[in-house]
Design brief:
Jelly Rolls, seven-stranded mixed sheet, alpha+beta, 3 helices, 177 residues
Amino acid sequence: MKKLARYSVYLLGLLLFVGGVLIFVGRDGAPSRGAFSGAVSDKARVNVTENKEAGPSVVIGSLEIPVEVASTSAAIQKGLSGRPSLDPDRGMLFVFTVPDRYRFWMPDMHFPIDIIWIDTEGTVVGVSENTSADFDPENPLYYVPPIPAQYVLEVNAGFAASRGIGVGDKTSFRLIE
């Protein structure tokens, strides 16, 4: 009887562990932003050119958007979570080492955003507009690009529509290698 109880405890522990992993791992094993691992290691960083007058930016058409760059696992996990706001003309660029259908969710977000999905060639492949800052941990809403993306640009909600950013737009990166 004691042996059966001990195995039951082990089995329960295993089930809780597996359940936790499934909650934080994206579709087909692709990790979600909330528990990101895999495609970016802390050693795989974007090389940002140091320039005191200008920082890194994403250029879409004639629009230049100053960005913070998230390229490590820790920075990608954190994203914009916990911040009260984002400067209206700025964004955060997530850089992954390989293109994939990364899932993003909004735990601890305090404002809605637009998510602009960019492929390896620098083409906008999707725009998730006005993503909700409301987060239900029991039923989280995930945002996923329509096709694999290597770069993800987060900006304030309404930014993409007000500036005419859409699928097919070409992007380039300034001071980001």
